[in-house]
Amino acid sequence: MNIKIFAVPLILFVFISCVGQNNAAFTPEPDFSVYSVPENFIEVNNIIETKDGSGVGSMPHWLIAYIDGGIEAVEKLEAYSSKYVFIAVNEGENFSVLNKWIENFSERLDFPMFAAARIDKRMIASASLYPDNEYGRFYETMIKNAHSSVYPGAEKEGTYWIKVWFERENTWEYAENYKFFVLITMNKMSLQTIIRNMIIRVENAVTATSAQSSAISRLRQSFFEGF
Fold first, then answer.
1. Strand pairing partners for 50?
2. Which domain covers residue 115, as residue numbers?
3. How far lies 185's CA from each of 11, 71, 114, 163, 201, in Å?
4. Helix (H) or strand (E) holding 3
5. Is residue 166 part of a domain?
6. For 122-133, what is each residue's pLDDT tens digit?
């Protein structure tokens, strides 16, 4: 079973976290786990079953947009114009395990990794070469703070699953598996306020060179451009 968190366009961390309703940890046994962005990662014609049994046309608008164009396409939908969108994807052959994962998905416990991934992506994109050189200890400390912070208002808005067929790599064999999706959103203004306060807090906590301080200042001024 593969767990993929699609929020940013690069591979970042390996992490699996699910918490049961009785507060006991529930951790699926994955073969592989990454964070990345889907690029035509699902062929619509390969979908053979959907959650409601009514076919591709009945899938929620956010999932159709996501399959077609990733997170950016979802955020362009009117319903999410004032929100940041994050989507978790877990895939495999065991429906029961996947269903348990989706039931136990926790905004409080699982959302910080989404925020941290998006913050990391923004800092890497803004650096001229390497963010740990560009920003010094600010970079590492910022990511650690993002992982450990609390994000009131993060909301699990929807879930869905589909079943697809695919050709096994380097073979002529065909197989089927399930893909489960969790849609998480957060109000843009709320998340921006949390991140702005985080930047100030981290900036005051680390020692930076003159060049690094200038880079951090530029980042602070333009952080949400393309975020």
1. 162
2. 2-127+154-188
3. 21, 11, 10, 24, 24
4. strand 2-6
5. yes
6. 999 999 989 999
